Amino acid sequence: MRTPSDLPASGRSRRLGDRGRVALITVAVVLIVLVLSARFLSGFYIDYLWHSSVGRGDVFWGQLLAKLTLFGLFGAVFIAIAVLNLVIADRLAPLTFSANMHPVVERFHDLFGRRLRLLRILVAVFFGLLFALPATGQWSTWLLFRNSKSFGIDDPQFGNDIGFYVFRLPFITFALDWLFAALVFVTILVILTHVLNGGVVLQPPKPKVRRATKAHVAVLLALLAVVKAGDYWVLRYELTNERRGFVQGATYSVVNAQLPAVVLLSLIALLVAALFLSTLKTDTWRLPILASALWAVIALVGGVIYPAAVQALVVNPNQKDREAVYIERNITATRQALDIADIDETVVEFNTLTAGELTEDIEPLQNVRLLNPGQLIERFRADEGQRAGLTIRDLDIDRYEFDGREQQVMVAARELDLGTIANKSWQGRHLISTHGCGLVVAPVNRVNSNGRPDYQSIELSRPELYFSEGLDGYSIVRTSVSQETCQGVEENEYSGQGGILLDSVFKRTAFALNFLDYNLLGSSAITDESRIFWIRNVRERVEKVAPFLSFDADPYPVAVEGGVLWVVDGYTTSDRFPYAQNANTSQLTGGSGLDFPFNYIRNSVKAVVNAYDGSMQFYVADPDDPIINAWADTFPDLFAPLSAMPAELQQHLRYPEDLFRVQTEAYSKYRLDGDRFFDRKDAWSVSQAPSSVPRAQTTAPAAATDAANAAVVNDFAEESGSARFVPYYSMFRAPGQDEASFQMVRPFVPFSTDDTRRELSAFMVASSEPETYGQMTAYVLPDTDTDGPALVQVAIDSDPRISAEITLLDTAGSSVVFGDMQLVPIGDGLLYLRPMYIRADNTLQATFRYMVAVYNGTAVFGADIQEALAKLFGPAFRTDVGDVLGAATPDDEDEPDTPATERTIEELLSEAEDLFTQADIALQSTPPDFARYDELSRQARDLVTQALELSGNG
Description:
Elements: H1 11-53, H2 57-91, H3 103-112, H4 116-136, H5 139-146, H6 162-197, E1 200-201, E2 208-209, H7 211-238, H8 252-282, H9 286-315, H10 319-322, H11 324-337, E3 344-347, H12 355-360, H13 363-366, H14 373-384, E4 390-392, E5 396-402, E6 405-416, H15 426-432, E7 436-437, E8 439-443, E9 464-465, E10 474-477, E11 500-501, H16 505-515, H17 519-522, E12 531-534, H18 538-545, E13 550-551, E14 556-560, E15 563-574, E16 600-610, E17 616-620, H19 626-634, E18 639-641, H20 647-650, H21 657-670, H22 674-679, E19 684-686, H23 701-714, E20 728-732, E21 741-750, E22 762-767, E23 776-780, H24 789-798, H25 800-809, E24 814-818, E25 822-826, E26 829-840, E27 846-855, E28 858-862, H26 865-873, H27 875-881, H28 905-924, H29 930-951
Parallel strand pairs: 3-23, 17-18
Antiparallel strand pairs: 1-2, 4-6, 5-6, 6-8, 7-9, 10-12, 11-12, 13-15, 14-15, 15-16, 16-17, 19-21, 20-21, 21-22, 22-23, 24-26, 25-26, 26-27, 27-28
Helix pairs in contact: 1-2, 1-16, 2-4, 2-5, 2-6, 5-6, 6-7, 7-8, 8-9, 26-27, 28-29
């Protein structure tokens, strides 16, 4: 007799053992998943905390709800389609398998024979989740679809409101494409299921397919054809942004060849669907297969070859006439979409300028910029960095009131630079060095006696900058460790309500997991009163709250009510505006917020970030924009009207530079009507950029060749790829205006593909004043006798005196660079003024050295504006005006100025010789400037007379 230990284990014991192993495996899998997903869950949690801390929980939940809605909707549709068809495939399966069943099929049924229903559901759910994931990325498209608005403009081809193309068409297109892909995949699953169920027997020489299986697949293929027919029908509307003809949009070959072909393809798709359904009775697939092959041929011929042939054989030989109506559509749409339809054009004539006119009208000269942001940033860093750990990343142009009048200034924030802090420990980087300190301001129209900026102070009660332009990572305030303080600030404890309160171990654990930083959990310096600042970069901050907007790459700081606010321009854009040309973004700076394709844009939002507590406000700057109105309906608590912005802050708003670049580039061509637009007659180009380096070439032959080749391919001629004039902010008084105002300026030259035309055709200004904000005016010259900026630079480089001085300065260890070239309309004439700096090669710190003045092709330089203009217009100008222009303010260490002495005979004769030389140049110019010749000769003779009187021979 066998002992109990020798007896086989009972079945119940074996089952308990199996269940135990399953339970252990399950627990292990759950633990692994939890560990792997811990960071994701912590990221989700702190994301919620962050949105709540800035009062934007509505945005967090709104986005999440939209994503979950799409995930659930598209996932449910896929699962429903898949389960229905898999059940049908199972019901259509034969009751018994054939004798020659494939071994793979046999093995499949051995494994899953009793669990096929569960398997169908699992397969449908798994692939349903996968197919639903891409839909979540369409959350913004879905929200715009739900909250669509009318533009009040109908497209000229189909008569639909533009809102249909911008708001509804993108989501409809995605849904159809998704449904087609889902049906293709379900069809493959169904065929595979029929193979495994015996509906398709894999046997040589060809598979054997049951009639019921054929019918099932035929219905699915018919559904695919119907969806494709709908896709073709929607494609008609997509053609309004086609690029086939001379311009973007549905041009002649699109309307008369491609569009009919698309309609035909839609009808063919419906016919193919009907033929597949007909196989349910006929049980023959020959006709639908032939029809499908014919469909593919017609798609190639009608959709590609035929439109191309019409374009080449019918349109191109008579393009101007064939596409005239479509070019007009493109012009109208582009003007509307890029907001350049209402630009005023004013004709202005520049005449001879005299010293007397300059003396009587010096206001434009008082606003000339001696300082240039691009060249002075290292100087600002060296002079005003204050201490290690602070840096100046960017110089911005703004205006503040000094000495009783509004003046243009360069302003910069002293931002935290973790790379240069003294204490690089964890506490040093996150608890001690937590913020930048205040603003640096200098008027742009004056320097001190050593050529450096004349820095001014702005009183700030809260100079700490916990949020700024270049900050990354996180910092923690209100800890037991004292943080560094700003100069003049006694209290070093953060007193605001910004950031996320770390009042629980759970929160600290979540942040530690997210940042993979144990110190957040283990540091005893962190208390329940501590607050963590996360996402400290102001641009990233506003993008986090409003990811559906595009934001400018150049936030700028403003001193308001004792604190610092950052202003970030927000744009609404679309690439769906029918017939509108895509904006040319090739000349935008690196990192621009508009570096992507679009053909509609509005500067619809001014986002404001408080540098102390990180709070944000979004003000609607363009209430007529349908896109921002749609978003305002989606998130009604996110936006406020511009009228709610503090009046003091409104005084500092600027028209965005990147938007102005895009608009001026487009307006240079789209100001013309159809005939002149096609011929490029009277078209402009944005002026070539004058080199910032002396004696540099101002043309780019290689780029011009590339542009010319591109023009042959694309029909739409473009200028060369050489650098274009960078628009600049200025206290600018345009012709016909009574006083200067804060505006942005950019000049134009006649259009050419190779940069051969460099004469001034016009210049455009955009107002940043609150009363006239956004108004743009183009001042058009009736002739092309006036030099443009590139020709002015040639005059500067060609002048022997300037070249000789540059040679002296441009020695080992230093170099000469130029600042912005500025157009100065004054009296009845136009001056060009450009500052010249000397820069140390080892530090790149520049100081102002000379002002270069150019008038009527003559270039001179002087220690300041007075001296330069005195050389151009004679000593009468200097004597009459005195010291009011760009007067140098001495440093405390500078010696006081000594009284001016009377000029010697040699000085008088030297000045007279200069004037006679300039008079000869005026006489030799084309056409001769007789008035200037007479004026300069008179002044020279006066100087000779004074010299003679001093010598006793008068």
